[in-house]
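User: Here's a structure from my thesis project, written as structure tokens. My advisor, Dr. K., wants to see whether a designed sequence matches the one we expressed. Can you design one independently, without my sequence as a hint?
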């Protein structure tokens, strides 16, 4: 979806503790674990998420 593919999902994760920032050792370990799964996934940090959704309108049911 983000790379022009025909399908995909965006999953947002919340935590009581701060998530690792892009470029940190923890983020690299998390990214490696996500890429090694049956369906490869990517880790994006808070800064990327805020920029991606900036100006978006929430849809509520």
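Assistant: Designed independently from the structure alone:
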């Amino acid at each position: 979806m983000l790379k022009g593919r025909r399908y995909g999902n965006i999953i947002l994760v919340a935590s009581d503790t701060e998530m690792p920032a892009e470029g940190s050792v923890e983020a690299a370990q998390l990214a490696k674990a996500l890429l090694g799964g049956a369906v490869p996934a990517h880790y994006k940090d808070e800064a990327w998420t805020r920029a991606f959704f900036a100006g978006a309108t929430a849809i509520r049911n």
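When you compare it with your expressed construct, this may help: The longest helix spans residues 25-35.
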